[in-house]
Prior knowledge:
By secondary structure, the chain is mostly beta strands. It has one helix at about 10-25; strands at about 1-10, 30-35, 50, 60-65, 70-75, 75-80, 85, 90-95, 110-115, 120-130, 135-145, 160-165, 170, 175-180, 190-195. Helices cover about 5% and strands about 45% of the residues.
Amino acid sequence: MTFDGPINTTYGEAMAQIRDKISSMADWSVKDEQYNTDNTAFTSNNDYFVFTTPEGSDVRLSATGDEEIELEHGPNWDASAGSWEDRYSNSWQAMPHDEHDGSPSFSDQVKFWVEYVNNKGFAFYMSREEGDDYDAGMAMGISELTRLWDYSTAQVRESKYTALVLGYQEHDDDKTYEITPLSRAENLATPTRARDR
Length: 197
């Protein structure tokens, strides 16, 4: 297990540093990546990187049009096409920003902590540090589940990983703090949510 932090940097640079730390694990590798400018930071929507896990599934962290970070995973990311060939139906977005009437930016100052374990997964917590009314925190991670049966023969296809996402997400003009502790089946029930109106 490796734990790093606190690390002070920008929101966009933090994502590149998280990529480098996760890909430094022995059995994790970067399968594909795309950047608007260069690979030292996320700077715009559609920047992304994709990891292949020790179990052979793929995990994608990407920037959305709202400058949220989106977490997706599935059995196969097609690097040549830059798209999913096979993906689990669940995905999540979050950002370290309390939007109100403001807009997030990848140049915002943040502080982050990250833990990564080769045979398990990773998790990071990030807090915005601009000192205005929009500072907030987010957490995101993915971890391998303990095997209880043969996943490849299950009646309902299931992932070997569980995901955690906590942070601001725009949802019907509400601020939504979403905790998603489990992502196993494609027909998973709605995640636990707590609204702040």
